[in-house]
Q: What sequence folds into this?
């Protein structure tokens, strides 16, 4: 999944290509793309509603799923039947591109295409923005803003018309621009989401965007705020880092890498981190995000920037996806465990579980990146032990 460095790289590569371009049409190919559109996006005046295609009575299509204006609902309820059919299809087929081509879905896609085109045609795209893993595509003069979340496998590419024609697979969305350019969203697994919101109006935002925590690269992510977020939490630190309401934009790759750098076991209860560890994790998160961004992101499989280029950070990964390979710091084979359904990669020696090895492990885990420069070796660190009562609590947690 694209995380902060990848989405920011996409934003930057988009900016020079689409800012100032005028939108001609918006074409939705994949109805699932818009299924979570929040209520604030549906702002057509009532008299326009009659122009829209009538919903289908059979099969739980548009009419049953529509709101009081006959407009497709943005919530789960309205799309239940459509989504269910698609999930069934996914189970049967290894090629999701074959899915979602029912007449109902094509109607949904057409209705959204017409709506988005009506709202956005003739408007110039402003400088793209980013918040967490959300890509923001505002138009000049407002108030509209397209919000894209690429989820697992979404790719947003700026192409020429002829390049677009040569890329027929996995199309989810097309924004046709002036000067023969198109901005196309492609998604093999169809988890990407599109929202039309009013900039500056949180009520029109999807809940995930509205609730985002601080941006980790910005001053707003303060040490005091981070410590408050950790305090009293029994959630594994890895899971807390993935919680977008705690800190925005960190995903599986950079969370694993940051915890390795900070020498903190991913399952360590967040509230059990001592102040030095808390600071080390925060510093490590910033460092890996900064490095990831400098490398243009991490391409494992699907991620590419808006110009089609891959990210180079995969070559610098120390733990993510390296299960069984030697730790670059100590040679111990990298381990992988499951935490809340997500894999967590770590070095069992550099990131010991405190409750297995008591005080010595805590000393190691408190780590070098605390009191010494970030590049210092672990032996340079003057680790502070957790207070005795903290150790008792860790033992109790186990
Ligand atoms: Zn190690």
A:
């Amino acid at each position: 999944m694209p995380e902060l460095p990848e989405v920011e790289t996409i934003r930057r590569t988009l900016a020079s290509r689409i800012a100032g371009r005028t939108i001609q049409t918006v074409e939705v190919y994949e109805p699932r793309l818009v299924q979570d559109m929040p209520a604030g996006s549906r702002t057509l005046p009532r008299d326009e509603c009659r122009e829209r295609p009538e919903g289908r009575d059979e099969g739980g299509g548009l009419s049953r799923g529509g709101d009081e204006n006959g407009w497709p609902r943005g919530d789960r309820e309205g799309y239940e039947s459509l989504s269910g059919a698609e999930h069934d299809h996914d189970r049967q087929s290894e090629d999701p591109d074959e899915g979602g081509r029912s007449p109902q879905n094509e109607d949904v896609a057409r209705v959204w295409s017409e709506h988005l085109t009506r709202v956005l045609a003739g408007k110039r795209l402003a400088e793209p923005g980013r918040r967490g893993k959300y890509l923001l595509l505002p138009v000049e003069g407002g108030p509209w803003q397209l919000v894209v979340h690429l989820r697992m496998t979404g790719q947003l590419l700026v192409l020429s018309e002829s390049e677009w024609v040569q890329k027929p697979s996995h199309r989810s969305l097309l924004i046709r621009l002036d000067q023969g350019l198109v901005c196309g969203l492609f998604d093999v697994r169809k988890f990407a989401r599109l929202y039309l919101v009013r900039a500056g109006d949180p009520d029109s935002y999807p809940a995930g965007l509205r609730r985002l925590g601080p941006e980790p690269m910005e001053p707003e992510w303060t040490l005091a705020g981070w410590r408050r977020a950790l305090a009293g939490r029994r959630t594994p630190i890895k899971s807390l880092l993935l919680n977008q309401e705690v800190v925005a934009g960190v995903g599986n790759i950079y969370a694993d890498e940051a915890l390795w750098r900070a020498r903190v076991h991913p399952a360590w209860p967040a509230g059990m981190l001592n102040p030095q560890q808390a600071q080390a994790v925060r510093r490590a998160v910033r460092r890996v995000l900064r490095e990831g961004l400098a490398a243009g992101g991490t391409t494992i499989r699907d991620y590419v920037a808006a110009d089609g280029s891959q990210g180079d950070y995969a070559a610098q990964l120390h733990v993510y996806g390296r299960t069984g390979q030697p730790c670059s710091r100590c040679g111990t084979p990298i381990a992988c465990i499951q935490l809340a359904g997500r894999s967590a990669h770590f070095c069992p020696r550099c990131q010991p579980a405190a409750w297995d090895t008591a005080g010595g492990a805590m000393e190691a885990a408190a780590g070098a990146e605390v009191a010494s420069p970030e590049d210092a070796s672990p032996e340079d660190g003057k680790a502070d032990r957790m207070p005795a009562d903290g150790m008792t609590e860790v033992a109790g947690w186990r």
